[in-house]
Amino acid sequence: MNTENNHHEENKDTKEKRHFESCSDAFRAGKEDATAKAREAAPKLKSAIADVIFDVAYGATYGAVFAGAFANEFVPQAVKDGVAKGAAAGKDAADKVRSKMKKNSEVPDSEDSIELPAPA
């Protein structure tokens, strides 16, 4: 191995090592090589990411819709009616309590009470 040609010897890929005049030339060449490789790899990576996102979105949607459709078919109509009636009764009870609380809060304030500022 000759010391004059040590920067020109071939590596395993049969590419010659380059000799640079300055570090800035070496950095510039590295930047150009990295940019070229990234441009080559980007479409493959974008495609792989898009495939993963599609698969996750499809799987989540399929699972949610399947579970809902299965539950809709599996649960007897009597249970569905009971849940609907229970929800309506709960809403009515909450409305009664709310109106009762509102009615009680309309009582005139006594002189001993402290008025608090309204929440922001």
Fraction of residues in helix: 55-70%
Number of strands: 0
Residue share in β-strands: under 5%
Which stretches are poorly predicted, pLDDT < 50 over at least 5 residues?
1-12
* Class by alpha and beta content: mainly alpha
In the residues, how many domains can be counted?
1
Silhouette: elongated
Largest sheet: none
Output mean pLDDT.
80
Number of helices: 2
Q: Please give the alpha-carbon distance between the first and last residues.
A: 82 Å
Rg: 37 Å
Order of helices and strands: HH
Which descriptors would you attach to this protein?
120 residues; mainly alpha; 2 helices; 68% helix; elongated; disordered N terminus
Summarize the structure.
The chain has helices spanning about 25-75, 75-105.
Description:
- By secondary structure, the chain is mainly alpha-helical.
- The protein has one domain.
- It is 68% helix and 0% strand.
- The chain is built from two helices and no strands.
- It has helices at 23-74, 77-105.
- The N and C termini lie far apart (82 Å).
- The relative contact order is 0.03.
- The model is unreliable at 1-12 (pLDDT under 50).
Layout of strands and helices, then pairs:
Elements: H1 23-74, H2 77-105
